[in-house]
Amino acid sequence: MERVAIVGTGQTKHTSTRGDVSIGGLVREAALRALADADMTWDDIDAVVIGKAPDFFEGVMMPELYLADALGAIGKPMFRVHTAGSVGGSTAIVASELVSSGVHERVLTLAFEKQSESEAMWALSFAIPFQPPMHAGAGGYFAPHIRSYMQRSKAPDHIGILVALKDRLNACKNPYAHLHEKDATFESIKDSIMLWDPIRYSETCPSSDGAFAMVLTNEKGGDDAAAAGRPPAWVKGTAMRSEPTMFAGRDQVSPLGGQLCSKDVYAQAGITNPRAEVDVVEMYVPFSWFEPMWLENLGFCEEGEGWRLVEDGVTEMTGDLPVNCSGGVLSTNPIGASGMIRFGEAAMQVRGQCGEHQIDGVRTAVGHAYGGGSQFFAMWVLGSEKP
Amino acid sequence: MSDVVTAPPLTLPDRLSSIDEPVKSIRTPAAVRYTYSPGQAPSEFLYKVAQKQLTGRKCPQCTKVYIPPRETCPTCGVTTLPDIIDLPDVGTVTSFCVVNVQFYGQAMEVPYVGALILIDGSDIPLMHLLQEVDVETVHMGMRVEAVWVDEGDMGPTLESIKYFRPNGEPDADWNSYKDNV
Amino acid sequence: MRDVAIIAFAQTKHRRSYEGTSEVEFLAPVLQEVQAKAGLEKKDIDFVCSGSSDYLAGQAFSFVVTLDAYGPWPPITESHVDMDGAWALYEAWVKMQTGKIDTALIYAYGKSSPGSIRRVLTRQLEPYYTQPLWPDSVALAALQARVGLDAGTWTEEQMAEVAATSRRNAKGNPFAQVVDDAEPATLLSKDYFVDPLRVHDCPPITDGAAAVIMVAGDKAKELTDRPAWIRGIDHRIDPAALGVRDLTVSPSAQLAAEKAGVADGNVDVAELHAPFTHQEIILRNALGLGDGVDVNPSGGALAANPVMTAGLIRFGELADRISRGEADRGVAHATSGACLQQNLVAVLEGE
Asked: Most buried of the four, A25, C3, C123, C313, by CB within 10 Å?
C-alpha cells in the first residue's frame, strides 16, 4: 500500500447564503485554494472525487456531471460518493484509497453543499408516503436519544450548553466558520429557545453554504511538499462502518458501528490509548450533546464519563484533548461538506495551518464524521510523521 | 479576519459594461411527481391500521417483532417475515422530546411532545405524538394509548392514529422496556 | 495491480413496473441469490458498495432504507455512490487494490416506474441554463441521433439493425424485458417517437436490480472454476454542455478503453451500456470493436434498462459468459449522464 499525504487544503467562507457564486463557483473557490496550497494546477491532478448529501438539497441530480467542467475533470476519472451525513468523510477515504492503491498519484477531493439553492430544510423533511411520519424533524429524531444519554449517564443539564459555548467561541478564531458569535455566553445559550427539549436553538447547527477541498498525493508527493517547506499530513488509518437505521434493541446513544470504526482506525494507526495519544479531534457534533456521547463512543473515555470531560474543560483548546477547535458542525454546517471539513481541519492542525485556532505541536489528529440515524461512520487518523 | 476569506469581487468584461445590475439569481420551480409503493408487508400493515388494528411481524431467526412491519429483518437479512402478530394500541414511552417551534410542514400547536412508544408485544419503538398531557409530566416509562381519528377519516396511514395519550396505568416496569432506551 | 475477479452475478426479472413492491422487497432475493451462487455468507463479505439514485426513488437518503435488505449487522464496511452500480464496482475494485479487502458485494437497483424517468433525468443537467428548459433524456438522445444522421456517421437502418439484434439476442436472456423477432424493415416502418428516434431506438422503462460478487486473488479460484478476471478498468468524463462536444463521438469512452487496455488482445464479447441504438454505434467506434465482436448478447440496455443498474448488469452478463466458457476475453462498459457524457470501460478475461 502506498503512503498517502495531504498536501493542500482549501475551503470557502461558509455562510447561510453564498449568493455571489453559482454551485460551480462555490466548489471552484475551495478547489482553487486547495490547489494553491498544494502549489499545483488543474493539470497536476489525476482524478477527482466529490461528495455531497442528497441531490434534493440543491435540486441537481448527480452533480458530478454538471461540475466536471468546473473542477477540471474533463478527460479524467471523476465520481461522486453519497453516504448521507458522513459523506464528506467517506469521500476523503475513497480519495485516499485511489492513492494508497497506486491507481493515481494526485487526487483532488471535494465536498460541498449549497443549501440556500433549492431548499435543504424541505429536502430533509418532506414526507414520504407510507413511512412513519417524522413529527419533529431532524432534531426531533435525535432529541429522544440525547435524553436517553442524559438518563443513562446522569449528566447534569448544562453540559450541552458548555459544548455549544466552546464551539461557538472557537469558531470566532476560524475565519472560514459560518457563525461568529463573539458575544455568546453561557447565559445567552441557556436562554435561547428550547427547540426540541433538551436541545436549545443555540445548541443546534446552522444551515450553511460551503465547500472544502483537499489534494492528496502519494509518498513522493508528500516528500516533495515537505522538502519545499510545506509539510504534509500523513494518513495513518481510515475506517468506515454502517449499521441499520432501526432494529430491535439498537443502541442509538453509542452505536456499535461508531465503536468498531474507532477501534479499527486506532489499530491501524498504532494507537492504544486514544485519550493520551491523540492531540486534537475534529468530530461531527451537530447538536451539542453529541460531544460527550461521541467521546465515549470513540473510546476517549469510559461509558458514562464523556460529560465529565466536557465539564472539566478537557475538550477546550486549553485542555488536553481539544475537540472542534474549528468551531465544528455547531458553527458551520454545509451538510455534505461537514464531514470533509472535520477530516480537513484535522489535516490543517497537523500541518500548522489553523492560525488562531491552532493547537501547538499536533502530531496526531483524528477526523470523524457520521450520518443517517447515527448509523454511518467514517474516521481517519493523521500524523505529522510518515507511518 | 483575513481578506482572503471572501470571494474576489465580480468584474464584468468590457463588452458587458453597459449592464448596471447583473442577474444574481433565478427562480426556477421544479416539480416531479412520484407514485410510491410501500411494499407488500407495509401495505398489509397499513390496511390493518385502517381497520384500527396494529400489527407486527416476527423475524423467524431473531424472533423480534417489528412494527411497522418490514419485508426483511434488518439485522438477520432474512427476506420474509411471515408471522403477523396482532398488537394492542397501548405501549410505553421509552423516550421523548418536547418540540417548541413550528418547523417546515407541521401544523401542530406548540409545545407538543414527540415520543418513542414501545407498543406492547413489539420490540421496536414507534415515533408518534403525545397529546392530552402536561408536557412537564412526560417521562420514560409512562403508559399510553392510541387515540384514533374519526371513523370517516380512517385510512391506510399511521396518521389514522391522531396521537397517543396517557392511559392512567402505573409506569411500566423498567425491565419491560430497558432494551429500548 | 492485484488480480480481482467477478465470481457471481444475480439480477431480477426486469419489468416495466414492480409497483406494489418496495425496493427492499425486490432487491433482497437478488442479494441472497448472489451470495448463494458465490458460496459466501455475510460474514465472508469484507465490503458492500451500492449504486442507486435518490432522484429516481423520489426520496432523499433512499439508499439508507434499502441497505436493510442486506442486513448490515454486525456493522459492516459499506459505501454508496448515487450513480450506476458500475461505479460502485469501481470503488470496490480500488479498495481491493489497497489490499484492505478480499471480497466485495456490489449491488444496484432502480425503479423508473415511480416517476417519469424522462422528466427525472432532466434534473441531471446543468441547473442554471439547461434544467429550466426541461430537455428530457429522449429528446437529448434524439438531438444526438440527428447530428450523426446528418453527418453520415450512421443511418436509420443501422440503428434499426442494432435494435433488431438486441431484441433477438434477448430471446436467450430470461431476465430481459423487450424480446422479439422483429426485422429491421418492420421496425423502420413505424412512426417516429421523438424524431429521428422511433420507439425501438429507445430503451424500455424498467424496474430492476442486480448484484455482483468480486473476489481478489487465489480466493477467486477456490470459489469458482473460471473466474472472470478484471484485467483493466478505467473511467473518464466529457464536458456537460452538449454544444461543446462532437456528439457523434465519445472521447471519454475512447480514452477509458485505451487506459483499460481494450486493444491489447482479442475481444470476443462486448456488453455495452447503450440505452439508444445510435449510441451503440458510437461506442463500437470509440472502443475500436470490429465486426467479429459479439455485441450485447444479453440484449443490452435496449432489452432492459433499470436505471443505475444497467451498467453493473453489463459486468455481470459478461462475467457469466466468461465463466461458462462462452467467451475468453471481453469488454464491459457503463455510461452516466446525457448522450454518453461519462464512460467506464473494463476488460474481463477468463483463464
From this structure: C313
